[in-house]
Amino acid sequence: MTDTRTALIIGGGIAGPVAALALRRAGIDATVYEAHAGTADGVGGALSIAPNGRNALAVVDADEAVRRIGVPMTAMVLQSGTGRHLAELGSPPDLPEMLLVWRTDLYRALYTEAVDRGIRIEHGRRLVGVTDTDTGVTAHFADGTTAEADILVGADGLRSTVRTLIDPAAPQPRHSGLISFGARLADSGLPSTGGRMFMVFGRRAFLGYQVLDDGSGGWFVNLPHREPMTAGQARQTSAVRWLEVLRETFADDDRTPALTLLRRTDPAELLVVGPMEDLPTVPTWHRGRVVLVGDAAHAPSSSSGQGASLAIESAVELARCLRDLPHREAFAGYERLRRPRVEKIVAAGARTNRNKAAGPVGRVLRDLLMPLFMRFATPERMSWQFGYRIDWEARVTTAHGLPTSEVRLT
C-alpha cells in the first residue's frame, strides 16, 4: 500500500510535467520546481517520439496534445554520402506512428497540459540541498525558500543536481565525439519526402532531414568533434561561421541535399544544440525519499531516437509503483523494472554514434555491412523497443523482492 501523498518534482522539462501528470493519476499531489526564471520556449532541436513513448503518453491522456504538434514519420531511409540506399526501416504495424517534433513544441505542449490540469509549476527555484528524514523530505532552494513533501523526484536532466546530491560520486555525461545542429525551413527547396525521414551517413558528418508536402521541413547534422565541447562553448562560435563549417563538411557529398538545405538556412534560425552526450549507467537511482527519473537516471544519446520516450515511460512507471507500494519498495521496484531496458537502449545509441563518426575504413565497412544488418531489423525484432506498453491497470506487487505486472508487448 502506498505511503506517498505528496511529491516535489525538480525540473520542468519533459520528464517533470509527465511525472506530475502520472502522479496526479496515481492520487499523489505533485508540484514542479524549475530552476530557470522563465519557460524553455525556443530551446532544443528536433527529436522523435517513438510508438512506445506515445503509448506512455496515452496513459496520462497527453498523447493527443503531442500528436497535434508532431509530424508523422512513416519510415527512416538510410543512405550513404554517395547517395547509395543502405536500408529502410518502416514504422511497426498496429502501433502509433512515430512523430517528429521540435523540443520547444513538445515542451510547450506538456507544460500547457500540466498547467491546464491544475499542476503547479514554480519558476526560479534552483535546488541547492535536500533534507531527508523518516517522515518526509525538504527541498532547499537558492532563493532561501524551502518546500516539503513525502518524496522528491529528480527530473532535472543530464546534469542533474539531484543525482549528485544523492550520490556525490555519480558519473558525469560522456561525450560521444559529435556535436549537433539543426534548423526549421519554411521553404526547403526540396520535394516532399512522403513522411519519411532520410538519414545520410556522409563522408565527414551525418545528416537527417524530412520535407513536408508544402515544401517546409527541417534538418539536423551530427558533426564529429573529438574534443569535448560544452553547449556554451559551441555557441561562442557565430551561426554564420558554423554554417560555413557545415557547408565545407558536406562539399563532397554532392549526391545528397545537404548543401541545398544549408544554403537555405538563415543564420538566425540555426540551432547550435551542442554536444551529443549520454550516461552509460547511473549506479544510484534513489536514496531515502529521493528518486531520479528521465535523463537524470538514464540518458541515451539522441541517436537512439528514444530519449524523450524513455523519460516519459519512466515517469509513468514510477507513478504506478508509488501508487501501489510504500516509497522504498516502489523506488526499488521502479529501478528493477526500468534499468535493463534503458541501459540496453543507451548502448544501442552509443553504437549508432560510432557509425556516425566512423573513419575512412569504418565508413566502407559500415556501408557494406549495414544493408545486411538491417535485414534483421524487422518489426518483430524491434517489438521489445517500440511495442513496450505499460499496463496502468495492473497492480504492482512484489514476489521474492521482484516487482511483477510490468508491461505488455504488442
TrEMBL record:
Keyword S-adenosyl-L-methionine: no
Positions of the FAD-binding domain: 7-169, 284-347
Protein name according to UniProt: NAD(P)/FAD-dependent oxidoreductase
Any single Pfam family the record assigns to this protein: FAD_binding_3
Entry keywords, A to Z: Monooxygenase, Oxidoreductase
UniProt source species: Plantactinospora sonchi
